[in-house]
Design goal:
- Among the domains are: about 100 residues, Arc Repressor Mutant, subunit A (Orthogonal Bundle), CATH 1.10.10; about 40 residues, no CATH class.
- It is built from ten helices and five strands, in the order ααβααββαααααββα.
Length: about 325
């Protein structure tokens, strides 16, 4: 029986004398009428249909016919008949329900009712319109009184303020200090890379960038600045950020001054021995652990070995 549309229940329904005067079961029936009515506030007045829709899970102490008559006597619904069929129209439907896209009527409206019933319905609608107009006038009058009271309070406040200003003007007013102008904000001198830009060598030494890697890093930095039209106020800071990004992305390995690998200060004497190189003429007495007799190596062989160790941990950008 329900058309599946949500309905609106306003808090005013608790303050309405007509709904407040209903019995508990009649009040429940009226709420059910709001839910089963079509989008124009009309529904069938068949007692069996109403009983099945509203009181399907319980027995009523009063017949549905008497409960329906109670809502009619309270002026909440208007009965009408169309071609022998009985219907009900909720009187305050247009005032309390807002349907944006109403569906087609489920039942005939009061405008199609028999003549005698239609006249009765029309008189009830006129009475409802008069009550609505009276409520509107009372609301406007109440708002008007509130506005007048607000203006009166504002006028009293202005008079008090004016008296205070007069008393203040009678006393000597110290000369106000002139407002200090706010210093203008200086915009940093942003521009392209200067022609004489040179990376800070001391900073490179401190963070541990190997000298043989610096020319390639500087060339890459200059190419990126030219290709992407970089503009900075502090190009040394931009250079430091570039080096930090290279390290962050794993393109550069730093060797701080305390841990950087360095070549020996003195040349090898040529008699140094490396562990694990066994004298080929004394293999029978060689140490099984690889640290026994060894053969001397020359400077070139040792230098090549040391160079391989140094270059292993350096990743070129």
């Amino acid at each position: 029986m329900s058309n599946g549309r949500a309905r609106t229940l306003k808090p005013e329904i608790l303050e309405d004398e007509r709904t407040a005067s209903l019995s508990h079961e009649a009040y429940r029936l009226f709420i059910g009428m709001l839910l089963v009515a079509d989008d124009f506030g009309n529904l069938r007045a068949n007692e069996k249909l109403l009983d099945a829709a509203v009181f399907w899970a319980r027995e009523t102490t009063t017949s549905v016919s008497d409960l329906t008559q109670e809502t009619i006597d309270a002026g909440l619904v208007v009965p009408y008949t169309v071609r022998g069929q009985r219907y009900l129209a909720i009187r305050t439907w247009q005032r309390h329900q807002r349907i944006d896209r109403p569906s087609k009527p489920k039942v005939p409206g009061p405008e199609e009712a028999d003549k005698s019933v239609a006249e009765s319905s029309k008189s009830l609608e006129q009475q409802e319109s008069q009550e609505h107009s009276r409520d509107t006038r009372e609301t406007l009058a109440r708002h008007s009184r509130m506005i007048r009271d607000s203006f009166a309070l504002d006028r009293i406040g202005e008079e008090r303020k004016g008296g205070e200003e007069i008393r203040a003007s009678a006393s000597p007013d110290p000369t106000p200090e002139p407002a200090k102008p706010k210093p203008a904000k200086r915009r940093p001198n942003v521009g392209p890379m200067p022609a004489d830009f040179a990376p800070d060598a001391a900073w490179l030494d401190r963070v541990g960038v190997l000298p043989d890697l610096r020319p390639g890093l500087e060339t890459k930095f200059r190419d990126l600045a030219a290709a992407k039209a970089w503009a900075y106020a502090d190009w040394q800071a931009a250079w430091r950020n570039f080096i930090n990004r290279e390290v962050e992305f794993g393109k550069l390995v730093l060797y701080p001054a305390a841990t950087a690998p360095r070549m020996p200060q003195e040349r090898f004497s040529g008699q140094e021995r490396l562990p694990g190189r066994v004298d080929p003429q004394n293999r029978a007495t060689a140490d099984p652990g690889g640290f026994g007799d060894s053969v001397p190596i020359d400077d070139g062989e040792l230098a090549d070995l040391f160079t391989g160790i140094v270059t292993t941990g350096v990743t070129h950008a």
